[in-house]
Design goal:
This protein folds into two domains: 36-144, Sandwich (Immunoglobulin-like), CATH 2.60.40; 148-410, no CATH class. The protein is 7% helix and 33% strand. It is built from two helices and 28 strands. The strands form seven sheets. The protein has a seven-stranded mixed beta sheet. Strands 14, 15, 20, 21, 22, 23 and 24 form a seven-stranded antiparallel beta sheet that branches. The radius of gyration is 26 Å and the shape is globular.
């Protein structure tokens, strides 16, 4: 019996040895993933200077300019500098990439923001410089930095599924007075962050327009609403004291919005604050929700759009299909506001989590990144990062047209948290 047992053990050990050898042989035969050597070009388009002249970027702009390759499935980012011809040479794991370029350059004493984004680029083969074509070129349009920017946005709601406390603070981050008259706060399509991104008509071109779902416009005749450097205004979904509103979990709406400059009210008489002026909605894709203007707690995209004139809802003289409106290719024909990116002063992309960059809606020229509080009904906001202060103590915020870098998450939403001033014309100015 002992001999039989010994023979059995020996036989099993022999089988295991053979199996291990076979596994090692199989591992040796497995394909080794070889990096691909990719040449990717940055093309800087001619742009307009402050006097309206079309100029070409200096060749030295390529100095210290980097291109980033983001492989989100592998959580790998590779950044390489461009050569003198604007070509970035990168060694990459084969895969699907978002390719970005972002920097700030100076021309005749003015700062220009350079942002570009090519999404879902397949880089699985070597690409030599002689093989560069449209698919391996990132085309960018320098944009003169705008002093107006979103300073803080609270969009995700408070614990207890309370959502009426959404607000948008707009700040003058520059050194000169800006007039808010006719400025539009626009929510972009798709309203909800999604990987099912729309296809726009080919004649619209690439990254030349952003497309609005809802637009609210600040009134005025041109010089009625000056915003001095260091001043901000607040636009609320509902201008009420939400700290007095008890949520389903016994908490509150976190923030008092009863003393803001404007509210976005669509007609519900039970919710309006008569002490706060209502903005007019001048565009609304589809039917108007007369109960409320609720944006996605998962993350919408917003921009500050300056059409340069007063708009009216359903004004047939202004809203014309294929001119100031456009429909998604293959859709039922529902029209969205068609806004030239040259008239967009700032834009912020909000996504469910920072791993959802493939849900970006905004052209990379006006926001090459995105930001997120990382959840819904968590009572957190996003705020720009302070980089300096003026002599009067008001903050100067980071604004590189890249929300990933420019914003940080705040545990509690707060209006004018860093000493921003209220404009003198505001009803609530002290």
């Amino acid at each position: 019996m002992k001999n039989i047992f010994s023979y059995t053990i020996s036989f099993l050990l022999a089988l295991m040895s053979v199996s291990c050898v076979q596994m090692m042989d199989a591992a040796g035969d497995a394909d080794i993933i070889r990096p691909v050597e990719v040449a990717y070009k940055v093309s800087i388009n001619p742009f307009s200077d402050p006097d309206g002249y079309t100029v070409t970027s200096p060749t030295e702009w390529f100095n210290d300019m980097s291109v980033s390759f983001n492989n989100f499935s592998e959580l790998v980012e590779t950044s390489v500098k461009c050569d003198a011809d604007g070509i970035a040479h990168a060694s990459l794991i084969p895969g699907i990439y978002n390719v970005t370029v972002r920097c700030t350059k100076e021309y005749n004493g003015k700062q220009y923001i350079i942002n570009g984004l090519n999404q879902n680029v397949s880089l699985i083969h070597d690409i030599a410089p002689s093989q560069i074509d449209e698919s391996t070129t990132i085309s960018v349009n320098p944009v003169l930095g705008s002093p107006l920017c979103f300073r803080e946005i609270f969009y995700c709601g408070a614990p207890g599924y309370y959502f009426r406390n959404q607000f948008y603070e707009i700040y003058n981050n520059g050194e000169e007075t800006v007039y808010l008259d006719h400025l539009c706060l626009a929510q972009l399509h798709p309203s909800n962050a999604t990987t099912n991104l729309p296809e726009w008509p080919a004649e619209d071109g690439k990254d030349k327009y952003a497309y609005g779902v809802t637009l609210w416009q600040i009134p005025g005749e041109g010089h009625d609403y000056p915003l001095q450097p260091g001043e901000s205004v607040v636009i609320a979904q509902e201008a009420n004291d939400h700290t007095k509103q008890i949520t389903s979990t016994g908490g509150t709406g976190l923030i008092d919005l009863s003393h803001v400059e404007w509210e976005c009210w669509t007609g519900n008489p039970q919710r309006v604050n008569p002490e706060v002026e209502d903005l007019s909605y001048v565009f609304w894709a589809g039917s108007v929700n007369t109960m409320q203007w609720l944006t996605s707690v998962f993350g919408s995209a917003f921009c500050l759009y300056q059409p340069g004139r007063k708009l009216e809802f359903n004004d047939a003289d202004y809203w014309k299909e294929g001119v100031t409106t456009s429909a998604v290719v293959g859709s039922s024909g529902l029209q969205y506001a068609r806004m030239p990116v040259v008239d967009i002063l700032d834009a912020v992309e909000l996504i469910p989590t920072m791993s959802d960059m493939n849900m970006k809606r905004i052209p990379g020229i006006i926001d090459s990144g995105a930001t997120s509080v990382g959840g819904t009904y968590v009572g957190k906001s996003v705020c720009r990062k302070v980089v300096d202060h003026r002599a009067d103590g008001t903050p100067i915020y980071q604004d590189t047209n890249n929300s990933t870098d420019d914003f940080e998450v705040m545990d509690v939403p707060t209006i004018r948290r860093n000493g921003e001033r209220t404009p003198s014309w505001s009803k609530w100015a002290k």
